[in-house]
Write a structure and sequence with these properties.
Blueprint lengths: L2 E5 L6 E2 L3 H14 L14 H11 L8 H15 L1 H7 L1 E2 L3 H9 L4 E5 L5 H10 L23 H13 L8 E5 L2 H10 L2 E5 L6 H6 L4 E3 L5 H8 L1
Parallel strand pairs: 1-4, 1-5, 5-6, 6-7
Antiparallel strand pairs: 2-3
Bound molecules: magnesium ion.
The site of magnesium ion has 8 residues, from loops.
């Protein structure tokens, strides 16, 4: 049975150690000319939504091309701060081993489902040297849709085009750390493996409907068993 795994990035695979919000603020200022000291709520949301709400927070009018410009500047910002990211941030415990364990399974295809814009997602994963485990061309990103559940069929269709296999709710797995990941699976058509490695507790994830909830990715053998 062929399966596709859709990894969330932030607080599931990696943490930026605060570099992410600094990159956002710098890119926002460079694109809009407005200096900011806080962002709209980011947890589990797509970047389009965070950007739009941050514009509203500061009463900044968008001439229409701010978001595509922001996407480019943000990715460049991550690459410029690669060393700082590696110092302040980290790959979460067990993430590399879990990626490796799935990569060894020919029946499993793995990519990302993330609110990050595609260029920033790739920059983050490359900076932490885990991009090579994933097929990033078939992922679904915050630049594809503002609404996270809509990213599931986008990734499934891309995975089918790549592998020739059809992926259903039963054969698609999201691994993520927020209630938004759980909802994306429920509404978008996937199984959820929730990981309480971010700010959301196991109780909150279970209450949102996650029947499988792990405290971390440390047990990669258990991860593989769960998916297989
Ligand atoms: Mg996350």
């Amino acid at each position: 049975m062929h399966k596709v795994i859709l990894w969330d990035i932030d607080h599931t695979l990696i943490e930026t150690g605060g570099v992410g919000s600094q990159v956002f603020k710098d890119a926002f200022e460079q694109v809009t000319g407005r200096k900011i000291d806080r962002l709209a709520d980011v947890t589990g949301r797509t970047e389009q939504v965070i950007f739009r709400e941050t514009l509203a927070l500061y009463d900044v009018e968008d001439p229409g091309d701010y978001f595509p410009k922001f996407v480019e500047v943000q990715a460049a910002g991550y690459r410029a701060r690669a060393d700082e990211m590696r110092q302040r941030g980290r790959v979460l415990p067990g993430a590399r081993e879990a990626l490796q364990a799935f990569a060894e399974r020919p029946e499993i295809t793995q990519t990302v489902l993330t609110g990050n814009p595609k260029p920033s997602a790739i920059a983050k994963l490359e900076i932490f040297d885990i991009a090579h485990y994933l097929d990033l061309e078939i992922g679904a990103y915050g630049t594809d849709d503002a609404d996270r559940p809509n990213l599931v069929p986008i990734a499934q269709t891309r995975a089918t085009t790549r592998t020739g296999h059809t992926y259903t709710r039963e054969t698609t797995y999201i691994i993520g750390d927020t209630v938004s990941d759980v909802e994306a699976a429920q509404k978008g058509g996937a199984q959820i493996i929730a990981v309480a490695s971010g700010r959301t507790t196991s109780e909150e994830l279970r209450k949102a409907g996650a029947s499988i909830c792990l405290t971390g990715l440390d047990d990669d053998a258990a991860m593989v068993r769960t998916v297989l």
